[in-house]
Design goal:
The chain is an alpha+beta fold. The chain is built from eight helices and nine strands. The structure holds coenzyme A.
């Protein structure tokens, strides 16, 4: 199993950190993550059940890691604000998912920054060629975020395989498109073990 990593990026007077949690860090934040996963605004956009338990959260993170996924807890100035992951990694590709948990933290540019950091990791560090997302049609925030990252509509069978249901639209982003659009992130995001 690869070592747990920490991605950092200081920008606009804020310090952003994405940390791959070990079991102890997941346990420390499991209650908070459970409450965020279950909050209606988040669960409805992530196809969540809305009734996850603390044990479900622990199991989700254990399974993600065991299946070769790369999950991160997101912090701003040391404060946990959400999580993000790359799952179904294989054949030069992965699926990306992101949640900024508390309503008060949304719409402040945090999702945009943490998502950029994870994409630097996906393309620059892992060398992936393409990343896929299957957002719900009515998830306006994430559509704006995906457009910012450089995602384009992709209805190919490969992309559709990531859709959770008929309400999901599918998009994908190529490594070169992201690198050309996000040169500062590409240059400045640091990765440490
Ligand atoms: C979707 C999500 C990750 C976005 O993170 P965020 O920190 O709120 O977003 P940001 O502040 O970085 O803004 C990202 C974009 O959304 C836009 N946006 C912010 N609030 C918005 C709103 N209420 N309606 C529409 N667009 C909005 C921003 O203007 C920005 O677009 P721009 O680059 O064109 O200006 C976050 O809202 C979230 O976790 N939602 C619930 C879970 C979810 O939907 N996850 C995605 C599916 S896996």
């Amino acid at each position: 199993m690869p070592p747990s990593l920490r991605l950092t990026w200081d920008r606009e007077d804020r310090s952003f950190e994405a940390v791959e949690p070990d079991a102890a860090l997941v346990a420390r934040f499991a209650d908070r993550l459970r409450d965020w996963y279950n909050a209606h605004d988040n669960a409805s956009m992530m196809e969540g059940s809305g009734v996850m338990t603390r044990d479900d959260v622990v199991e989700f993170w254990r399974d993600l890691r065991a299946s070769g996924g790369r999950g991160f807890l997101g912090f701003v100035d040391g404060r946990l604000v959400g999580d993000a992951d790359l799952r179904s990694i294989g054949d030069g590709a992965a699926e990306f998912a992101l949640m900024i948990g508390p309503a008060a933290e949304k719409g402040r540019g945090i999702g945009r920054t943490l998502a950029s950091m994870i994409h630097v990791f996906a393309f620059r560090e892992l060398g992936l060629e393409r990343v896929f997302v299957p957002p719900r049609r009515d998830n306006h925030r994430v559509h704006a975020l995906n457009a910012f990252l450089g995602y384009e509509r992709d209805e190919s069978p490969r992309a559709r395989a990531f859709a959770d249901g008929p309400d999901a639209e599918t998009f994908s982003l190529a490594a070169a498109t992201f690198r050309d659009k996000h040169r500062a992130a590409w240059r400045e995001v640091e990765v440490r073990a």
